[in-house]
Amino acid sequence: MKKAAVLATLGVALLAAQAHAQTSVTVSGTVDAYAGSMHLGGATRQNRVESGGLSTPQINFDGVEDLGGGMKAEFALGMFLRTDTGAGGRFDNDPLFGRRAFAGLKTDWGTVRLGRQTSNSFLNMLRTNSLGDSAAFSPVFLHTFRNAIGQGAQFLSPGAPPASRTLTGALGTTDSAWNNALGYVSPTAGGVTVSALYAPGEVAGVGNRKELSVFYANGPLNLALAVDRFGAGAVPPSGPAAAALQSQTSVQVSGAYAFDFARVSAGYFNHKRDYASVVDDRISTVHLGASLPVGPGALLLQTAHSRQSPSVGSTTKRTTTTLAYDYNFSRRTDAYVLYMNDRFASLASGNSLVVGIRHRF
């Protein structure tokens, strides 16, 4: 009863504040779950019900207040959840608002934000990716960003046992959002938007993060470029110990073009990691994809190939290919069937087949 009373009081207070300040607040989200057989390269086949086949489940609160004179205040709070268990976050110990949590001001000169913010390289990847924000099955997502299940595992490490080399461990190069970030987004001019992000380390031994991004959108054409620089200990490593990591530089170039019959996409990631006392390495990823309208839905295809090349030693390779059909019941609800092939080094190839449903609100 006490909890219900508190929630009711908060609801009335929020409504009153909204009416007084004339703030527009919207609530949106995605619920996504799938079931099927998962088999990663060199690993054991598993039959499972999981969360987030085509999109990571989430709830978002976004608000804007018109301050007059062309200035607006804004805020965003976004949280992830797991549809299969009802737990919050993408994984245990994920922040409450792990997707984003910031406040900002928007003027004719651009938007400035403070707080946890989505990285621009991640946004560029989504904009030029035929499988969008599929953390579980988009090959380029799997190869370049931390993901929900097994996060932090070693994706491209020949010394790791297959159980810890899960696709959703990814390269550990970066999470999709940065803590303690100061961000700027320019006004769009001629289809070009420039974005910058800076996050101080705030802890002894942890370096700063810096990012600059350019995104171009004009009719059917999208082009994206992002450069990230991480200082010592500012990025979760997938190889040697975190204490040895001195810096990482990442470059992303990608694009997409919508023809009458299909939207095609391609991109390239390059991550160079420098260590104090161990072998440096470079990780490169190339991805190609397409989305073809078929009936009331779309056929989705993407492949990604990654190479981890240490300055001394042998190169490790991984190739992942996904084919899916996404059937639209309505503007908000769709169902999908998906096949994924995963090949890691010389280990046995893995094949996964799942079906799922997604609803947006």
UniProtKB/TrEMBL annotation:
Residues 11-343 form the Porin domain. One of its GO terms (molecular function) is porin activity. It is a multi-pass membrane protein. The keyword Transmembrane applies. Keywords: Cell outer membrane, Ion transport, Membrane, Porin, Signal, Transmembrane, Transmembrane beta strand, Transport. Residues 1-21 form the signal peptide. GO terms for cellular component: cell outer membrane; pore complex. Transmembrane segments: none annotated. It is found in: Cell outer membrane. InterPro entries: Gram-neg_bact_OMP (IPR050298), Gram_neg_porin_domain (IPR033900), Porin_dom_sf (IPR023614). Pfam families: Porin_4. It comes from the Bacteria. GO terms for biological process: monoatomic ion transport. Homotrimer. This is Porin. It comes from Polaromonas hydrogenivorans. The lineage of its organism: Bacteria, Pseudomonadati, Pseudomonadota, Betaproteobacteria, Burkholderiales.
